[in-house]
Amino acid sequence: DVKVTQSSRYLVKRTGEKVFLECVQDMDHENMFWYRQDPGLGLRLIYFSYDVKMKEKGDIPEGYSVSREKKERFSLILESASTNQTSMYLCASSPNTGDYQPQHFGDGTRLSIL
Amino acid sequence: DQQVKQNSPSLSVQEGRISILNCDYTNSMFDYFLWYKKYPAEGPTFLISISSIKDKNEDGRFTVFLNKSAKHLSLHIVPSQPGDSAVYFCAASANFGNEKLTFGTGTRLTIIP
What we know:
The complex is a heterodimer. In chain A, 0% of the residues lie in helices and 53% in strands. Chain A is built from no helices and eleven strands. In chain A, strands 2, 4, 5, 6, 9, 10 and 11 form a seven-stranded mixed β-sheet that branches. In chain A, strands 1-3-8-7 form a four-stranded antiparallel β-sheet, with no helix packed on it. The relative contact order of chain A is 0.33. The model of chain A has no long low-confidence stretch (mean pLDDT 93). In chain B, β7 and β8 (72-77) form a beta hairpin. Chain B has strands at residues 4-5, 10-14, 19-25, 30-38, 45-51, 56-59, 62-67, 72-77, 86-94, 102-103, 107-112. Chain B has no helices and eleven strands. Chain B is mainly beta. At the A-B interface, β5 and β10 of A face β4, β5, β9 and β10 of B.
């Protein structure tokens, strides 16, 4: 069974801090994704990666960066946290098999920026 | 610009009856559609999908219908069970799923025992 693990379930940080959210998957998936979920807005894609060292901007990349140094790990970085980045953050992964494979999600990190 | 819309934020259905969740999209490039289900404090889980070459896909109690001309899809759950109470997200992709997913805003389904 696919396991996507996000390092923290809840996180509280202060405005201006640099924040790291970590995600690890154990199924050797090529594709990894970071979303945020906000009430009334659904899931919005922040960044994604199709391979190690590769990254692509999603729909709302401003204020975020990512790092993928190893295939199993995809990190989301808030360079200087702001209150409007308070949200639920979801990581997902999927294999690149040629035909479509659904994304598998972690349980999320609820981040509060004070 | 919301390219995938779920206009009903919530829906309540009696146990045993049919639940119908709706989704509309505006981007004609979308050709692959999915439904995800999300319980509180858990990540979304994949439920069912449909390609634009079909107009119906069925998996047990779950059926997804696609009307390409109306740019509309729906998820039917029958019979509805208490464990179906969750938030349901519709998602769409281009290039038969090889492009990124665009999600709708979600519909909270409550099954009344």
